[in-house]
Amino acid sequence: MTHPSPAAPLDRIRVGSAPDSWGVWFPDDPRQPPWRRFLDEVADAGYEWIELGPYGYLPTDPAVLTEETARRGLKVTAGTVFTALHHGPAVWEDTWRQVSRVAALTRAMGAAHLVVIPAFWRDDKTAEVLEPPELTAAQWRDLAAGTERLGRRVREEFGLRIVVHPHADTHIDTEEHVARFLDATDPSAVALCLDTGHYAYCGGDSVRLIETYGERIGYLHLKQVDPAVLADVVARRLPFGPAVARGVMCEPPLGVPELPPVLHAAQRLGVDLFAIVEQDMYPCPPDRPLPIARRTRRYLRGCGA
To answer: What pTM does this model have?
Structure first.
């Protein structure tokens, strides 16, 4: 492994990890490690901050989860929800029902963020096209209005800040789509979770995004893309799930984007940010995540984080 040269401490960046880096995509799946193993290993790898992952993977009883995390020296940064707000007011009640339960647990764990991921436009496994990859003007308006409504209500009822996560195979993915979404939404209600891997997967430049829309960046996910695998994925028009199974996301510093420039651009914003390592590896052998997590944490320390 190539190690970065010593750098000035990134004292505004707080590094963590997530169940995703242990191959966890679902609340319950026999191919995923048991939740106690994840907690043991993420602490062993040197992290103190974690995300909740898919609701129901970690205990949903705040008392149980607080005890389990505290005795391992772990603290929670965020919960995660999936939404389809471009479908307009008709989906609001169902959306709020699932958002509110995740937000309640997130708040109970002392976290301050809720990561919001848009719905996929094609099936994550079969590549079946579920709806057009481009939104209509009316759908863009519904997406913006619904997300602002969600951001305000989550803040009012739970004291959390929503951070919208551009994601492969969703309608908020490319530089063009991310810029359109940010330009259409109120900064006081909606912030961005910049995932460096997903943004590179969709052709985006993370440093340029931070420098252009710095005031909108509320949270980071750190991951890298293997350019050779990505080229094959694009050529074959594979959906995100099979792309991950092929190893499109790789551990740093083996892929793109280079993380030190991203971290230093984020540091220059002058605000405290969580930077959560999220290397998609579903499914993966049970003994694979921990060595990668240890190497990644060591690498990020070498970057100053």
So the answer is: 0.96
